[in-house]
Design brief:
- This protein folds into two domains: 10-170, 3-Layer(aba) Sandwich (Rossmann fold), CATH 3.40.50.970; 185-314, 3-Layer(aba) Sandwich (Rossmann fold), CATH 3.40.50.
- It contains twelve helices and 15 strands.
- It has helices at residues 12-23, 41-46, 58-70, 81-85, 89-97, 125-130, 143-153, 201-213, 232-240, 257-267, 290-296, 301-311, and strands at 6-10, 27-31, 51-53, 74-80, 104-108, 136-139, 160-164, 168-170, 185-188, 193-197, 219-223, 226-228, 244-252, 274-279, 330-331.
- Helix 2 (41-46) links the parallel strand 2 (27-31) and strand 3.
Length: 334
């Protein structure tokens, strides 16, 4: 793992999809009128005859993707996460999930990473997709995994939903890291607290763990890129070695990673105090900067440190997580 502040890469997903499509002629690329914003202007430029502009008609685009998949194609469908899930949900259920066809739905701008406010924030997308039978749900953390995700999901059976941050993406993992659809990645081992994190909150969890470790708290950090099917074995094993369990996600605490971990612990009869860090069953306002929203809605490093400290019933004030200043072309958790 690299140390923060993290270097960034521009459009790692868009470049990787083009590379994959060169050897996989069955791949088609669909856009919901957000071509440049979803990095697929690169695909359109290289493979214009395999690019379909669906316009701002997401329901029709999902039905079209289901039909194309039935004809032997592998459609990759792109728009912002909220428009990829809420708006065309019925079409996804009936034309994609029910027949279990190989459509890959790519939702950009996860959670509160957008200034667009409640109409644009995908705070319930994982819950919606996780509820659909046959659907795999993936929440990617960094540029290394983002560059691998298209090739990793292309041959999975049935449909897949992937949520991605757009723009300049932090490089957290070493280049030899391999994204797995079956195994969560245990990044550190501890006996006091187990932190399970997905997507943009992995950087937050690592920074919180560092502040806690510096103050005598032994912490496990687990990167969970696949929310469904969850790697329940790793969740049970890591949680069993810790006194308390926390989840961290850029999403509502209802229906996403926190719910999946809670269900796993309950079904295993594994009694551990649990706290879910994420959107607390609320819509979020818009902002010009994501850091303001992460602070306001309790997704910051300090909030995760405070929550862990309180859950462990440690005496005295929680340690202060020192913010790291990121230069241009760098990323640091809030």
């Amino acid at each position: 793992m690299h140390e923060p502040p993290y270097a960034t890469r521009l459009k790692p997903y868009g470049r990787a999809l083009v590379d994959l499509a060169r050897s996989r002629e069955e791949i088609l690329c669909l856009s919901g009128d957000l071509t440049r914003q979803c990095e697929i202007d690169l695909f359109q430029a290289e493979f214009p005859d395999r690019f379909v502009h669906g316009g701002m008609a997401e329901a029709n685009m999902m039905s079209m993707a289901g039909a194309l998949a039935r004809c032997g194609h592998i459609p990759f469908v792109h728009t912002f996460g909220v428009f990829a899930t809420r708006r065309p949900y019925d079409q996804i259920a009936n034309a994609i999930a029910y027949p279990a066809v190989p459509v890959r739905i790519i939702g950009f701008m996860p959670g509160i990473s957008t200034p667009g406010g409640p109409s644009h924030q995908a705070i319930d997308d994982m819950a919606l997709m996780r509820a659909l039978p046959n659907m795999t749900v993936v929440d990617i953390a960094d540029a290394v995994e983002m560059a691998q995700v298209a090739a990793t999901v292309v041959d999975l059976p049935g449909p897949v939903y992937v949520r991605l941050k757009r723009g300049e993406i932090p490089v957290m993992f070493d280049d030899d890291h391999q994204l797995s659809m079956t195994n969560a990645a245990v990044l550190s081992h501890g006996t006091d607290a187990a932190l399970f994190a997905s997507g943009m909150m992995l950087a937050t969890a690592l920074a919180a763990a560092r502040a806690l470790e510096d103050n005598g708290v032994s912490v496990s950090v687990v990167s969970v890129p696949v929310i469904k099917p969850l790697d329940a074995g790793t969740v049970r094993r890591v949680a069993a070695d810790a006194r308390v369990v926390l989840t961290a996600e850029n999403h509502s605490i209802i229906g996403g990673l926190g719910s999946a971990v809670a269900e796993t612990l309950a079904e295993a009869g594994l009694g551990r105090p649990l706290r879910r860090v994420g959107l607390q069953d609320t819509f979020a306002e818009g902002s010009l900067t994501a850091p303001y929203l992460f602070e306001k809605y309790g997704l910051s490093v300090q909030h995760l440190v405070d929550t862990t400290w309180t859950l462990l019933a440690r005496s005295g004030p929680a340690p202060t997580a020192s913010p790291l200043v990121a230069d241009v072309d760098e990323y640091s958790p809030v």
